[in-house]
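Review this chain:
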Amino acid sequence: MNQIYSYQRKDAVEPKKNRPERRLVHWLFFLLLAFFLFKGFFWIKGMFGQRRVTEIPLAQKQSIETVPDPNAKYSQILNYTISAGDIPADIFSSQGKLDANDTVVLLAASKDAYDFTNLKIGRSIRFYFENEVRATRIEYDRDTERVIIVERAGDDFMVREEKINYNISKETAKGTINNFFYADALESGLSESTVLEVGDIFSFDVDFTTEIQTGDSFSIIYEKRTRDGEKASDGNILAAKFTNVGTDYFAYYFDNAGNSGYYDADGRVLERQFLKAPLSYRHISSGFTGARRHPITRKVSAHYQIDYAAPAGTPVVASAGGTVISASWSGGWGNMVRLENDNGYTTHFGHLSAFAKGLRSGARVGQGQLIGYVGSTGWSTGPHLDYGIKLNGVPVNPLKMDMPKGEPLAGDEMRQFEELKKQYGNLLE
């Protein structure tokens, strides 16, 4: 059930009668009041954002739809796209025709549902009018799945969050790798976000940076969504097949007692403790070995980690969930992140150019979460990531780790899963 939050104005307090003996006090009071009103104006402006750097003509940022049916509830719907430099208070005023008091009341009513001072660039906010000067309804898409709804009743506002209602159809995209997966998948009709999700789903079995070959193929069944007749972002990938060098990999989206996720053809969850690689890299410049000549010191020593050559600034993610041991300068390693992972594992990521914002010792990070960027800090001859794994303090070769899959589904869940596979079997061929 959606919760509704409301806020009501308080009645104004009647001013006290003026008395001659307090005339001087009153003059001082009015001077102080004028001063605070002046300061307050700039405080409120600062509260809703910064002054525009570049003014964008209004016609370029909004579209106005007039409802043709005279019996329709709304006489006009105004759709406005948030742009860089926009101030929320100005948007509510210029588009929704709300005055300053309305805005203050709206912010108070919405504080437990959404902070409207934090509108995102590129998102849409819609204002609905019922033959009134002020908007009676406001809708703001919080993300691709949730919408914040504001309804005005006189001088009060009620705010709630709802799931976006899409019209959904099942679509199939198929293709063969002629150039590289990203380009060929886009050519098949998949959106960029869906292509990236396919890579994430199969990332525990296939390294899409180095292991993809010409002639590999894919078949993806996914949710194509529209909203009010307009194209919207894709929904879930329902089933997928990827053939890599003659080996077929399958993924099925299955809701297992409320824990939805992707399972392989045997009903085993695809997610494992470690990703195949923590970044998108060009090549491995130095492997896991007991004897390597260091490019700077020229001494031969053990190199129990992997060096991934990649452009400076390439994002680096946590290969497994864990707790940050440290994120700091570490001598020849340069900027380094060390993580304590589950089951006795630890991982390190060296020579970073910078750390992810907010990363600090003791913080918990999830698998695939951004932790830093490729650099060449410390003893380094070029941009690369030094990546190492230890199990109970003993170095492990990341390229030869055999991470077992989880236990397969059983009982009723397995029977339901087999039925699901039958639905998509022919479509994936």
User: Anything to note?
Assistant: DSSP finds six helices and 25 strands in the chain.
